[in-house]
Amino acid sequence: MTPDVQASPNDPLRDAVNLADLEALGRAALDRNALEYYASGANDENTLRENRAAFTRARLRPRVLVDVSGVDTGTSVLGLRLSSPIGIAPSAFHGLAHPDAERATARAALAGGSVMTLSTFSNTPIETVGADAQGRFWFQLYLLRDRDLSRSILDRAHAAGARALVFTVDAPFLGRREANERHRFALPAHLSAPNVASRAELAQVETDSGSQLANYFQNLVDKTFTWHDLDWLRGQTPLPIILKGVLTAEDAVLAAEHGCHVWVSNHGGRQLDTAISSFEALPEIVDAVAGRCEIYLDGGVTRGTDVLKAVALGARAVFLGRAALWGLAAAGQPGVERTLELLQDEFRLAMALCGAARVGDLTPALVRL
Ligand SMILES: Cc1cc2nc3c(=O)[nH]c(=O)nc-3n(C[C@H](O)[C@H](O)[C@H](O)COP(=O)(O)O)c2cc1C
Ligand SMILES: CCCCC(=O)C(=O)O
Prior knowledge:
Layout: H1 12-15, H2 19-28, H3 32-39, H4 46-57, E1 59-60, E2 75-77, E3 80-82, E4 86-88, H5 101-111, E5 116-118, H6 126-133, E6 137-141, H7 147-159, E7 165-168, H8 178-182, H9 199-203, H10 212-220, H11 230-236, E8 241-246, H12 249-257, E9 261-264, H13 278-289, E10 295-298, H14 304-312, E11 317-320, H15 322-331, H16 333-354, E12 367-368
Parallel strand pairs: 4-11, 5-6, 6-7, 7-8, 8-9, 9-10, 10-11
Antiparallel strand pairs: 1-12, 2-3
Helix pairs in contact: 2-15, 5-6, 5-16, 12-13, 14-16, 15-16
The structure holds flavin mononucleotide and 2-Ketohexanoic acid.
Flavin mononucleotide (FMN) binds at residues 37-38, 51, 89-92, 119, 121, 140, 168, 244, 265, 267-268, 270, 298-301, 320-323.
């Protein structure tokens, strides 16, 4: 995909015809520190590339002569109505992209009838984002070694109106994003992570070797947590729990048995390099779970046909990581709104051209892997 931005002096956002155009705008707005943090995958970035490639390899088997005069892209996740099966994945530090940070993302999700997942490591306090999102948000938890702090974060998320807890399970340690190591990624002095630590604590992080972020993360998160501890987590929050970072049928079955929903993800290729693409992992997970819980997917979603393929194969919704960040960097709230709008329009057209008038009409028969 070659980004082809013909930026008019008036409205580059409106001139963007696809997410690649928005990515070019977003990238151009970032300094090296932020750009490398957003763009990088782990090690050789095989999984990062494979997330895209897997979508492209899958072929569609469209049906014809169906009345598609009124295509409806609407669906729901855990009972929350969405204008289309497209949400926003959690990502840390939106303040690197835009001064409005997570507030811009939350307002865009609200305006677009979507849902935003707020990272534990946001630059904006949970309560502020919750007020902006008006219930259109889920909260992502990194379990901290400090269980009291984790508990208070969970209480705050619930009180702020989060509708689900997304518990990230693929990052007991951060993967090695080598550009960040090489150039010693650091959070700029004007940003903090108010849900978890003060700026002073952040400033004390050892930066002599590698990325400040990896060291900081390493000290904070709990690496002992297992399936046995999930009951403890369940006791800490009344919210439905979604396990984010599941890539196998085995773990998906355990998740369902523990009463959790499943978010198929390899963390955007940022954790274990050469891990399977999320799209390729999806079918065995759908099969194994057999309708016991909802299944979501992220990783490499940039086209309406990607959304269609994932939903046809059993994902309830897909989530955007970097794509939302590029929109945010390009123009704040309107940039994220444009990202959602372009992708939803592509999805609607793809449905029509596949002969599907309702999201419920999307079935595995539409996709040849
Ligand atoms: C810059 C960046 C920061 C991220 N931070 C988090 C995070 O705080 N918590 C989390 O669970 N996942 C995090 N992720 C992973 C995303 O939620 C998501 O799994 C991934 O970005 C999806 O792939 P995509 O970028 O190709 O859409 C982050 C991803 C990126 C790119
Ligand atoms: C300290 C925040 C870690 C965010 C994360 O999950 C990522 O960078 O992929």
